[in-house]
Design brief:
The protein is of the alpha+beta class and about 800 residues long. A hairpin with a 5-residue loop joins strand 11 and strand 12. The protein is elongated and about 180 Å long.
Length: about 800
């Protein structure tokens, strides 16, 4: 909320300020033409300058308080410059308007001179740069020296003229020095515009424009004043209207400075986000400061030989040179003190940085003077050598004495070869610490030579790489263990990278395929996969790889003797320690025998179920064509016998009716049993009619409510699928009626593209599926086996007291020819 309330106001002030500046300029032009001369015009101009300069100073100071580091320094220098500049219109208003006299030139113009120096200081702070962290002793001192030289030049060139009567010459000389100062400011701003980036480039451009406008306006005003009578009465013709018109340039330039401050306030976040690093060399500023210091005594010597100035002027100037010389002597002492202090601090910081860097990297350095034989060690000596010191003076042969005996000859040869052939030295060796532990070191160095080519000094650094060596050894041992395990395991193992290409195969794989390692790499392994399985195999692998998931698949792989064997391939993704994906690893087992056993079992199951269906059909035919017919004849005979018995024998007739009734019921039950064993509806009317009829008959017989609904089924449904689903429905309803305790059942039978679905549900007591499968009953097992033979799936969801739902899904084109179950006639 604060941002939304402040920014619109800032924007309003920024965009309305040019209107205010234009109004001020028009007013000043009008007054200059109306008043033409006199204190009133001076009063308006000087009050306008004073208000504008104080506004510019206030906006710049506010910007400085809202920023940090060099940006704050930049705006505060500008605020100080505008505040010092404001002393000039204040003095003119006081002298001219209130007292009617022109202020003393030399004592009124130093603020003008100094405000440009402060603006140069603001530019020299270079706020668009991110300064390094060193202490700015030397740049600060150099700036103070340059400021001192400018003040000296002002006093030396202009102060003696206060005792003369040539006011115009004094004004022109001041303008020459002042204009040179302004040109220096413009040159610095032009350099910053060239080297900076937005949005600072825009700020510098506007500063350059406002400063240039002021510099040339000041030049014009002072020239006009010098050509007129600068000591005349300002209430008369000595202050013509043209000076008021020239003053419009000052109003415009100061208004421009105010606008720059408002623009800086608007762009505060962008200005603070600078990324340019200061890489300039401070030697150039030091050289400029030294030239300025040398210029002062040179000017004093030159003044001794001048004879064209009054004696009093010579005395004043020589006195200024002597005072400047004393001050410069003090400054040289301060500069030397600060330089030594900065150098000592930098050396200390550099030493601490080097020590911390060497300790953090477990490094040691050595400086070997071959002439004297002195060998200095420094750095993290504790880790490598067990020496509790930052530096150590080693003996002549101490380096080799601390080295592992097996490495001494090799390292000595490497050192000798590097010195003789003038090439870099590098070696890797072991150091034995006093406690007996061994540390690995990688040593590098170079040698320096005399003009005759003899080595005189060597510098080098050794890095403790024990941890890396231990990690490499552990990795090597781990890889060796992995290869040993993988090559002796009775499984085929492979690995792939992040590009899905295989990078490793163990020896059992190569022995199985009879192909070389190079032939299997990448996608070469796919050449051994059976053509009928290759597409499915690659799709399974690729989809699992993209999802970073485990996968299992079976395919046929050609053995070295040309026979295709069934392989069970299990792959899992691999991840690095940082959880980044590294590829896949998989293991394969030959499951041909299992597949053959499953095929044999499936064939047996198919034949058993087919035999069962044939037996059901035979029994149903016998029941329907033989026993049921005989029972019908028995019922007819009983009816005839009843006719032959006299009506008087009521008891016998009643018993005959009961026998005939029981006979009819037995015949009906046998007919129903015959239909369950072999449904004519299934054979002649189709699966939907058979299921609906069975549900109706079974519900009426068992006094149950069975809600059967079907839709979207293909026509016709193959006989083997029809028989499978019909038997599942029969078995499920018989089990539910017997064990669920529910009186209502829901049967849904429907088709989808490519599949047929059947669900049988109840809200009964439910059961534990694992316990039921372990029991002696064959109902669930029979259903599972029937569904498997038509390549379908069956799921049974049941929990105690939560009901049961059996779901079957069978593909429309299910089963192979040898697994189909045919209905018998």
């Amino acid at each position: 909320m604060p941002a939304t309330t402040v920014m619109p106001r800032s924007r309003l002030r920024l965009y309305s300020w040019p209107t205010v500046a234009i109004a001020l300029l028009l007013t000043q032009a009008a007054l200059s033409l109306i008043l033409k001369q006199g204190p009133s015009l001076v009063a308006y101009c000087e009050i306008s300058y004073l208000v504008l300069l104080l506004t510019a100073s206030g906006v710049a100071a506010w910007n400085g308080l809202q920023n940090r580091q060099t940006i704050r320094l930049f705006w505060l220098f500008l605020a100080a410059a505008f505040a010092v500049w404001a002393l000039v219109p204040c003095s003119w208003f006081y002298s001219v308007v209130l007292h009617g006299t022109i202020p003393a030139f030399l004592f009124d113009n130093p603020p003008l001179f100094l405000h440009i120096v402060l603006m140069i200081a603001a530019v020299a702070s270079r706020p668009h740069l991110r300064l390094p962290s060193h202490r700015p002793y030397r740049p600060t001192f150099n700036f103070l020296v340059l400021l001192f030289v400018w003040v000296f030049a002002y006093a030396y060139l202009l102060f003696p003229y206060s005792y003369g009567s040539q006011a115009s010459a004094m004004i022109l000389r001041f303008e020459g020095l002042y204009f040179a100062e302004n040109l220096l400011l413009l040159a610095a701003l032009g350099l910053l515009v060239f080297r900076s980036q937005p949005p600072w480039k825009s700020i510098y451009w506007h500063l350059f424009g406002a400063s240039a406008l002021y510099a040339f306006g000041s030049l014009a005003a002072n020239v006009v004043w010098a050509l007129k009578d600068p000591s005349g009465d300002l209430t008369g013709t000595s202050f013509p209207a043209v000076r008021g018109l020239i003053g419009m340039v000052f109003t415009a330039s100061i208004s421009w400075f105010v606008w720059i401050g408002l623009q800086g306030r608007k762009l505060t976040p962008q200005l603070a986000q600078t990324v340019q690093l200061d890489t300039t060399d401070t030697r150039y500023s030091s050289v400029l400061a030294m030239l300025a210091v040398l210029a002062i005594p040179i000017v004093g010597v030159w003044e001794l030989f001048r004879t064209d100035e009054p004696f009093g002027t010579h005395e004043i100037r020589l006195l200024l040179v002597m005072i400047a010389g004393v001050l410069l002597g003090v400054a040289v002492f301060i500069q030397d003190y600060l330089a030594n202090r900065e150098f000592t601090t930098d050396v200390t910081v550099a030493h601490d940085r080097l020590r911390l860097a060497m300790e953090s990297s477990k490094s040691t350095g050595w400086d070997w003077d071959l002439t004297s034989g002195q060998n200095i060690w420094f750095g993290d000596l504790e880790t490598t050598f067990g020496i509790s010191a930052d530096s150590y003076l080693a003996g002549d042969q101490e380096f080799y004495e601390r080295m592992h005996p097996d490495d001494r000859e090799r390292v000595a040869k490497a050192l000798s070869d590097a010195m003789q052939n003038q090439k870099p030295y590098t070696a890797e060796f072991r150091i034995i610490r006093p406690d007996g532990s061994v540390r690995w070191v990688t040593d590098r160095g170079k040698f320096y030579y005399t003009t005759a080519g003899n080595p005189q000094r060597g510098l080098g650094i050794g890095v403790d790489v024990t941890d890396r060596k231990q990690a490499e050894n552990a990795l090597r041992e781990s890889e060796e263990r992995f290869r040993l395990v993988s090559n002796t395991a009775p499984v085929l193992i492979w690995m792939s990278g992040t590009d899905k290409l295989c990078t490793y195969f163990n020896k059992p794989w190569l022995d199985f395929t009879g192909r070389p390692f190079s032939a299997e790499l990448g996608n070469g392994w796919a050449e051994g996969v059976h053509a009928d399985d290759l597409k499915r195999c690659l799709i399974t692998y690729t989809e699992a790889f993209d999802r970073r998931e485990d996968f299992r698949m079976e395919y046929r792989l050609r053995r070295h003797d040309g026979e295709y064997r069934w392989i069970l391939d299990i792959g899992v993704p691999r991840f690095n320690s940082d959880r980044s994906f590294a590829g896949y690893i998989g293991s394969c087992m030959d499951v041909t025998e299992r597949k053959l056993a499953e095929a044999a079992l499936s064939s047996v199951s198919s034949r058993l179920i087919e035999a069962q269906e044939q037996e059901r059909t035979r029994i149903a035919r016998d029941l329907h064509d033989d026993i049921n017919q005989r029972l019908a004849l028995l019922a007819i005979e009983l009816e005839r016998l009843k006719i032959d018995i006299p009506d008087s024998n009521v008891e016998v007739l009643s018993r005959m009716d009961e026998l005939r009734k029981h006979t009819s019921e037995i015949a009906g039950d046998i007919q129903a049993l015959s239909h369950e064993l072999h449904s004519p509806r299934l054979e002649y009317l189709g699966i939907v009619a058979a299921m609906r009829g069975f549900c109706q008959e079974f519900g009426e017989k068992q006094k149950l409510e069975i809600d059967f609904r079907s839709h979207d089924l293909p026509s016709p449904v193959s006989p083997d699928i029809s028989l499978c689903l019909f038997r599942v429905l029969q078995e499920a309803l018989h089990n539910a009626a017997k064990h669920s305790g529910s009186k209502r059942f829901v049967v849904r039978f429907w088709g989808t593209p490519g599949d047929i679905h059947l669900t049988i549900g109840d809200s009964g007591v439910g059961f534990d599926l694992e316990t039921a499968l372990k029991g002696r009953g064959l109902g669930l097992i029979s259903m599972q086996e029937r569904v498997r033979l038509v390549n379908g799936t069956i799921s049974i969801v049941s929990k105690p007291a939560s009901g049961t739902e059996i779901s079957v899904c069978v593909p429309v084109r299910a089963g192979s020819a040898e697994n189909r179950i045919h209905l018998s006639a």
